[in-house]
Design a protein that fits this description.
The chain is 43% helix and 16% strand. The strands form two sheets. The protein has a seven-stranded parallel β-sheet, sandwiched between helices. The protein is built from 13 helices and 13 strands. With 360 residues, it is an alpha/beta fold.
Length: 360
């Protein structure tokens, strides 16, 4: 098959998913093309897109794509249509709200099967808010188009069905996958802190709750790896809480280097879909605590989960730090157990086989 993946921003977990899926499908013998935004991601996105050209034999195309709906979408849609026609693609796979809109409208116009993966996106909104009514209303309208849905976890499928509806269309759940090299254990560096957080620094990720937990426990240290629009706010919050000597903000780092900076990973999110950081941490056999939200319980056992509040996070941290040898053994057991199911090859095979069931 000739497969075109359409998405907006070449950053974060969505971009990682698309890159892995594209390479996995290429390994299966398919011709893959990408179409995405040219105005976000900076030099890092440019390097990663350049790397994608090695396995995207149907090309990598970019142009400016706005995050919110607007008049510019007409020109973008025309560009996607021209690219799809020139590449004689057999199927268009849209990722995220904007990618899903473009893929389904272009697919319908050209008579090409199209599928949609939400990756959270509009599902973070509620119908009762003005913005939520617009985004979810658009999702509900678009659900009638396209050939089917691909979800990265059961939670996302259930949430989409409840908020939007599947419109009688077929769907498949294909959990995000990792590469074999990622299932190698990461050990803490000599200068590692007690805890490490890796992710985008923003309110949704629960960093304020983690800082509160650190203050409540006392005498423990934390490294925050990542950046984001609220980095300065959380740095200032840490100082105002008297944690400047115990909390390090290390900026953005490669995941395996980041994992070595703490003895226990904490994922204190208020909401998630199916975060790669949980998979990456589990695969690397690093002890972990995560909040019981989104698709996280589909990966982690109950002993590694807690409720999304500072008190529960603090209690979970105390328990893990009290018996570090047991925590490490549980982490190693989890890594071994998930090796086969959470692979890129399994993910790519499941999704590609699903394409084959779809008609025009």
């Amino acid at each position: 098959m000739r497969i075109l993946h359409v998405f907006r921003s070449p950053v974060g977990g969505l971009f990682r998913h698309v890159r892995d899926l594209a390479q996995g499908q290429s390994d299966l013998g398919h011709d893959i093309g990408l179409f995405c935004d040219s105005s976000t991601g900076g030099a890092n996105a440019e390097r990663q897109l350049a790397d994608c050209r090695a396995f995207c034999t149907a090309g990598v195309a970019t142009r400016a794509i706005s995050r919110l709906p607007g008049p510019s979408d007409v020109a973008v849609m025309a560009a996607v249509r021209r690219h799809a026609v020139a590449g004689t693609f057999d199927i268009i796979h849209g990722h995220g709200a904007k990618g899903g809109l473009l893929a389904r409208l272009v697919g319908r116009k050209l008579g090409i099967p199209s599928v949609y993966s939400p990756h959270g996106g509009s599902l973070h909104y509620a119908w009762r808010s003005p913005a939520g009514a617009i985004f979810l209303g658009t999702e509900k309208f678009l659900a009638r188009m396209g050939s089917g849905f691909v979800f990265v976890c059961d939670y996302e499928k259930q949430l989409f069905a409840a908020k939007v509806g599947l419109a009688g269309k077929p769907s498949v759940v294909a959990h995000n996958g990792l590469w074999p090299a990622e299932f190698q254990a990461v050990r803490p560096a000599a200068h590692a802190t007690d805890l490490v957080f890796v992710g985008e620094v923003r309110h949704l990720k629960g960093i304020d709750m983690l800082l509160t937990a650190v203050r409540e426990i006392g005498n423990i240290t934390l490294t925050v790896v990542g950046d984001g629009p609220e980095l300065e706010n959380f740095t200032a919050l840490s100082k105002s809480m008297g944690l400047a000597e115990r909390v390090i903000f290390a900026g953005r780092l490669p995941i395996r280097q980041a994992l070595s900076l703490g003895r226990v990973m904490v994922v204190p999110s208020r909401n998630e879909s199916f975060p790669y950081v949980v998979l990456e941490t589990a695969a690397a056999a690093v002890p972990m605590i995560a909040t019981n939200v989104g698709g996280i319980p589909e990966v982690l056992p109950g002993a590694m989960l807690c409720e999304p509040n500072a008190a529960a996070i603090a209690d979970a941290i105390r328990k893990v730090l009290a018996i570090p040898v047991l925590a490490r053994q549980k982490a190693e057991d989890l890594s071994q157990a998930m090796h086969q199911h959470y692979s890129v090859a399994t993910m790519a095979g499941t999704i590609t086989n699903f394409y084959g069931t779809l008609g025009r």
